[in-house]
Design goal:
By secondary structure, this protein is α+β, with helices and mostly antiparallel strands. It is built from 17 helices and 15 strands.
Length: 421
């Protein structure tokens, strides 16, 4: 009898301990928020910290868990995220490129909640351009909050080199090819390219195709509505092969920011790269208007080729209410103006405080407000990750072989497999 009493007592103690532990766990969950990202260094980490401070000032009782995974421009973080999401252990919220990277990977597979209500409840729907709302939406619902905007179609150029040879800064690829001949005769690469990672070549190609197709044709190509043997696509691929005749010889061994540096150092005339290059120039002490300046990539004036980092709401997020609070901060003017000047990007909202942004970013904000907006391929906004991986593989060979017919066949096969049906 005594033995039974002690067994019953032990069971009661264990059960009580479990209830207490569960209660403590639940209490901890309700007071915390895990933010998962690959922002581990430099302006991006400092920008995230600034936005976290805005959150903490408004919600001082919530513990912020800044969960970051370094390396591989997000590759390592995406692998960890996939394991957690598929294992039923999602972070409360996570950084992801706005557009198809999120939608095709996590929305279509039913891992995310729609968050249109976050923007509507805060009165923010009209603070974001309609083209951006389209990019972050699926079947009429918004699935992520874009915290920033970067621009892909930027031509960084050396004012001193163009002045030295009395050349006009090109606004078309035909004008580029004319200037390139002059630079070539003087031993100067007209185009700096750093494609030791093949995405940089994809980045260049997407903007060449944007120039040959226009905004509508560019969108249609990546929606599978235009075939790769279309004459405009062939023209773009052919132009790409021509401009590759004027690149630096060490391009395959060079990193993308080193190529941007060639321009500011007067070693090359232009570079086509995203506007994080401006942040690099500022950090290295290069002066705009003297060492470097910018214009839209040839043939793309009036179009803003965008990419964006964003946050969403996973289904079964442990602290859903806190995620909603975070997403509201992400969408707010205060949150975006804390993050972007440090990150070196512009707000996704159209009403950012101009006084907080430098000369280049103010110009980018002007273009973002008035230009036609299209999604970047190289940075996950326009196509799915599997499709982009295949595009990068094709580009690695195309940049070496410059075989337009072979590239058309391979790009079309990829589109047949991955484009929306």
């Amino acid at each position: 009898m005594q033995k039974k009493f002690f067994i019953v007592l032990l069971v009661l103690v264990v059960a009580t301990s479990m209830v207490f532990a569960q209660g403590t766990k639940d209490q901890k969950k309700s007071d915390s928020l895990e933010i998962f990202s690959w922002w581990t260094a430099g302006g991006e980490a400092e920008g995230l910290d600034a936005m976290i401070k805005v959150f903490e000032n408004r919600y001082p009782g919530i513990e912020l868990i800044n969960a970051t995974v370094a390396g591989g421009a997000g590759t390592n973080a995406k692998a960890v995220l996939a394991t957690r999401m598929q294992g039923g252990n999602p972070p409360d919220t996570f950084q992801v490129h706005a557009g198809h990277e999120l939608i095709d990977t996590w929305v279509v597979s039913d891992f995310m909640e729609p968050i249109t209500f976050v923007l509507k409840d805060a009165g923010y729907m009209d603070k974001f351009p309609s083209d951006v709302i389209d990019i972050i939406s699926y079947k009429g619902e918004v699935y992520s909050i874009p915290v920033n905007i970067h621009r892909s179609n930027v031509m960084w150029y050396s004012p001193s080199l163009f002045k030295q040879y009395n050349l006009k800064v090109p606004s078309t690829w035909a004008e580029f090819l004319q200037a390139a001949e002059v630079f070539k005769r003087n031993g100067i690469p007209a185009l700096a390219l750093g494609d030791n990672e093949s995405w940089a070549a994809t980045h260049l190609l997407e903007n060449v195709l944007l120039s040959s197709l226009g905004a509508d044709g560019y969108r249609d190509l990546w929606q599978g509505k235009i075939k790769w043997n279309d004459s405009r696509v062939r023209d773009g691929l052919t132009t790409y092969t021509k401009i590759l005749g004027y690149v630096n010889r060490d391009h395959a061994a060079l990193a993308n920011m080193d190529a941007a540096g060639y321009v500011a150092e007067g070693k090359a005339a232009i570079n086509i790269m995203g506007d994080w290059a401006a942040g690099y120039y500022y950090s290295q002490g290069f002066e705009q208007g003297k060492d470097w300046d910018w214009a839209p990539a040839p043939g793309t004036s009036g179009v803003f080729n965008m990419l964006s980092d964003s946050f969403g709401l996973p289904k079964n997020a442990p602290n859903r209410d806190n995620v909603i609070k975070w997403l509201t901060i992400c969408a707010s003017r205060e949150g975006q103006d804390a993050f972007n000047p440090i990150k070196g990007s512009i707000p996704a909202r159209t009403d950012g405080d101009r006084s907080k942004y430098d000369r280049y970013l103010n110009a980018a904000m002007d273009d973002f407000a008035r230009d036609t907006i299209v999604p970047s391929v190289a940075h996950g906004a326009a196509i799915s990750e599997p499709w982009l991986t295949r595009v990068n593989d094709i580009m690695a060979l195309f940049t070496t072989e410059l075989n337009v017919d072979k590239a058309i066949t391979e790009f079309q096969a990829a589109a047949d497999r991955y484009a929306p049906k």
